[in-house]
Amino acid sequence: MSKKNLPMRTGVGVILLNQENKVFVGKRKDNPIDKWQMPQGGVDKGEDFLSAMKRELYEETSIKNIKILKEINGFFQYELPENLVGIIWKGKYRGQRQKWFIVKFIGNNKEINLNTKQQEFIDWKWIAPEKLPEVIVEFKKDVYIQLLKEIKKIIH
Predict the structure, then answer these.
(1) What phi and psi, each to the nearest 5 degrees, are found at residue 42?
(2) Which residue ranges form the domains of the chain, and what is each CATH number?
(3) Taking burial as the number of CB atoms within 10 A of a residue's CB, which of 78, 109, 142, 155 is the most buried?
(4) Separation of alpha carbons 134 and 47, rounded Å
(5) pTM of the model
(6) Are 102 and 151 in contact (CB under 8 A)?
(7) How far apart are CA 151 and CA 29, in angstroms?
(8) Helix (H, G, I), strand (E, B) or coil at 33
């Protein structure tokens, strides 16, 4: 099956800022090389973007204590590289079209627990927003560069 015939997966992403305006990133269990990403995931049938974002954040990090700062206008999308099409998402999608949110973490780090039912991350850290394009896998880099511009509007 050709990649171009596959649809985009609808997803959400969350830029989680701590009190020092550092960004939460996790290291994926399925890709434990030194690459990190922000929490993100798919939208379930009948679910709105805000509910999906809160659910994904909780499922991946156990975090519930957040204050929503902004729902970023529009959508961000990326295409999977050819070698991952057919592997990721059981081969149903060619990439992802995402709605992103910027939220402030108002809990404390003890709340963060990656040992969840469907664990996605094996490690996490807070990083300076400027580092985001350096830590992400190559095929999501353009999205992260665009998201960084949105983060800077909020924190400067």
Answers:
(1) -80, 160
(2) 3-155 (3.90.79.10)
(3) 78
(4) 32
(5) 0.94
(6) yes
(7) 26
(8) coil
Q: What are 15-33's pLDDT values in tens digits?
A: 999 999 999 999 998 876 8
- Rounded to whole angstroms, the Cα distance separating 144 from 136 reads 8
State pLDDT tens for residues 92-138.
999 999 999 999 999 999 999 999 998 999 999 999 999 999 999 99
Q: Are β-strands 8-17 and 95-105 bridged in parallel, bridged antiparallel, or unpaired?
A: parallel
Given a contact cutoff of 8 angstroms between Cβ atoms, the answer to whether 49 and 12 are in contact is: yes
∠ CA 46-116-126, nearest 5°, is 95
Identify the pLDDT of residue 2.
64
Q: In sequence order, which ranges of the chain are alpha helices (DSSP H)?
A: 49-61, 132-135, 141-155
Residue written as token pair 């099409």: 85
Cβ–Cβ < 8 Å for 61, 24? yes
Handedness of CA 132, 84, 42, 46 (dihedral sign): positive
Measured between its terminal Cα atoms, the distance across the chain in Å is 46
Taken as a whole, the chain contains a residue count of: 156
Q: Residue 146 CB: number of other CB atoms within 10 A?
A: 14
